[in-house]
Amino acid sequence: MEPYPTGSAGNTIDLGFAQLDVQRAARTGDPEVVYGEGKTPAQIVSALRALHAAHPDRAVLATRLAPAALARLAEELPAAWLDEAGRLAILGTPPAPVGTVAVVGAGTADLPVLREVAATVGVFGAGCDEVVDVGVAGLHRLLAQRDRIAGADAVVAVAGMEAALPSVLGGLIGVPLIAVPTSVGYGWHLNGLTAWLAMLNSCAPGVLTVNVDNGFSAGVAAARIARRTARP
C-alpha cells in the first residue's frame, strides 16, 4: 500500500454536494463507494465519474440506485455495468481476484441483497461464487453444495424470514461466516428485525452478523478476509 498525504490538499475532490475521499484507497486499499440513496441521478453520475477519473486503474461502485439513476447512468456512462436486481453500477474493470467468497442465498427473494454482496466482493478484489436458493426449507439443496461452500476463503449467508441458513451453515463449515438478514418475509417479520435477531442469537459459533439488507458491508468484510487468507 502506497503512503498517503496527511494534509488536506489533494485528499478530496469538491463536487459542491460532496467531498470525495480520493485517498481512501491509499489508506485502506479500496476506493470510496457511491451510496445512491438520497442523491439525484445527476449527482450519482458526477460522483461515479469523478471517482473513476481519480482511480482509472480501479473499478468504482455505486449502490442502492433507483430506476431513474440506473437509466441516467446507462445514458451518460455507457461503459458502466448495471445490475437492476442488485440496484448497483460498476464503472471500470474489477481487479484480478485474490481468494474466493461463497455468497449463499436462502431464496430467490433474497437475490437483490445477494447481488449487492457479490458485486462488492468483485470490486473489492476477491472472487465470488454465488450459491442461490438453498434455504433450509429444502435442506438437501444446501447439503449438496456443502463441499463447494466449504472450499471458499470466506462465506456470506443471505436470508430473510426466520433466517436459519447461517446457523445451519455454521454447523457444517469451518470458514469465516458473515450473516446478512434481509427484510423478506410474511406477516410480522418487522422488516428484517426477526431475521437479524435470529442471526445474532445463533447457537453456531463464529456467525458474524451485519445490519438488515446490508450486503455492501458484508461484501467488503468478506473480500478483505479472502484477500488476506489467500495471499502468499
Automatic annotation (TrEMBL):
Residues 99-231 form the PurE domain. SMART domains: AIRC (SM01001). One of its GO terms (biological process) is 'de novo' IMP biosynthetic process. InterPro entries: P2CMN_synthase_LarB (IPR039476), PurE_dom (IPR000031). GO terms for molecular function: hydrolase activity. This is PurE domain-containing protein. It comes from Micromonospora matsumotoense. The lineage of its organism: Bacteria, Bacillati, Actinomycetota, Actinomycetes, Micromonosporales.
